[in-house]
Amino acid sequence: MQAVLSPMPEVRLFWELAQRSFQRHLTYRAATLAGLATNVFFGFLRVAVMTALYGTRTEVAGMDLASAITFTGLAQAVIAYLSIFGWYDLMRSVNSGEVASDLLKPLGYFRFWLALDLGRASVAFLLRGVSIMLLYLCFFPIIVPDRPMQWVALGASFILSWLLSFAWRFLINLTAFWTPNALGIGRFAFGAAWVLSGFFMPLRFFPDWFQTFCYLTPFPSMVTTTIEIYLGLLTGPALVQALFVQLFWIVVMILACQRVLRAGVHRLVIQGG
């Protein structure tokens, strides 16, 4: 069925799925408010930690206190948008057997889930991400970019970070094709991403050897790159390079996803799934 579809119907189907997903997640108002309250609480707690860390110092690793406080807000704002704490929808579909019907849909399996995640991420960005930053703006002297090109680069990086995050989550969820206990693998993988991405603490605060190790992985491109562009810590050639690094990891992750997906589907057919 996928072979007879022209590109335009596939595009329309993709956006239709994204829109339906957006509408569905938009109805979960109580869950959204609860998540927002939790994010704000821990965000303010992180501000207290940062303030104590700085003490009388005006700068740490090239970041002043206002930048550090803004970092905590941005980190909390992307939690839901990037599903940093975990995303197991694909795993559940494999375990429940829904994967059989998903694979028959007139849209590629990767694009099908990408469309659904686009709707989810859009709601998370609007209702939780933007809300958190507006609350921070009311309570703290946070940094707000004032250069148009910085906003353009930020928008591009924000989209790329989501694509990279999705590809990583998709890849981890594919382990469900091989084991019914893929949840444990997912928790370990997502936990590693929290640290290596710079979500918990700016990577600039860590020793050089640890920073080097982190930047050998795709995780800083999910969180740190976007935050440092917002804070103005990445400019000129360094900013362009960071965007290209994001693109590089997206390509690598998508290729890995396609390869692992083919192997997983082959195994599923062999087992009579």
User: How large is the count of helical segments?
Assistant: 11
How many strand units? 2
Q: Which stretches of 5+ consecutive residues score pLDDT under 50?
A: 1-5
Mean pLDDT: 89
Characteristic key phrases:
1% strand; single chain; two-stranded antiparallel ribbon; 273 residues; 11 helices; globular; mainly alpha; disordered N terminus
What layout of secondary structure does this protein have?
Layout: H1 7-26, H2 29-54, E1 59-60, E2 63-64, H3 65-82, H4 89-96, H5 99-103, H6 109-139, H7 148-173, H8 182-196, H9 208-214, H10 224-230, H11 236-270
Antiparallel strand pairs: 1-2
Helix pairs in contact: 1-6, 2-3, 2-6, 3-6, 6-7, 7-10, 7-11
Short description:
With 273 residues, this protein is mainly α. It has helices at residues 7-26, 29-54, 65-82, 89-96, 99-103, 109-139, 148-173, 182-196, 208-214, 224-230, 236-270, and strands at 59-60, 63-64. It has a two-stranded antiparallel ribbon with strand order 1-2.
Describe it.
By secondary structure, the protein is an all-alpha fold. The chain has one domain (2-270). It is 73% helix and 1% strand. The chain has 11 helices and 2 strands, in the order ααββααααααααα. The protein has helices at 7-26, 29-54, 65-82, 89-96, 99-103, 109-139, 148-173, 182-196, 208-214, 224-230, 236-270; strands spanning 59-60, 63-64. It has a two-stranded antiparallel ribbon with strand order 1-2. A hairpin with a 2-residue loop joins strand 1 and strand 2. Helix 1 (7-26) packs across helix 6, helix 2 runs antiparallel to helix 3 (65-82) and helix 7 (148-173) packs antiparallel against helix 10 (224-230). It is globular and about 60 Å long. The model is unreliable at 1-5 (pLDDT under 50).
